[in-house]
Amino acid sequence: MSQSIIHRSQPGFVVQGGGYVTNFSAIPQNPAVVNEPVYSNVRGTIAMAKTAAGPSTATSQWFFNLANSAANLDNQNGGFTVFGQVNSNGMATVDAIAAIPTYNQGGAFTNIPLQNYTAPNAVVLSNLIFITSVTVMDPTVDSAAGLSRPLTTRTTIGGGGNGGGGGSFDLLFLIGLLLFGRSRFMRS
Question: Domain spanning 1-188: which superfamily?
Fold first, then answer.
């Protein structure tokens, strides 16, 4: 997870990471986890990203919800599993990342936030927004147990368990405990 970049930013929707490192190579994927859509995708929540192939396809990528996207994300593709939330004033940091201009670098990088960048120059390390460290406080804790978010707006629970609330996300719990004070970014 070291040096995971924020590779997608869509203001008013999501800021996404967990898929690539600073040299743009893909992060090795863990086995897909069971989709567990219990909590709603509202502003400030952290959820698993998955493929269009189905509900239980999330591996390493995650996203921060910048707005209340429950009407869309709680129902799309079996619902997106919320496993954490930004605490305290952390959304100011997430919002600052969302305010950084994005550029289309092709492939998975069509909305990549780049600081101090001028197109068509080559992207260098100092242009990237990346995670430099993750702190594990207690990997045995159910990462969703303390969420103070509403339950999902889904009309049916399918394609995976409807309980658990994130208990199978041991590795992903790390992401929920990101210390954004250690994230490297600058406002443009």
Answer: Cyclophilin-like (2.40.100.10)
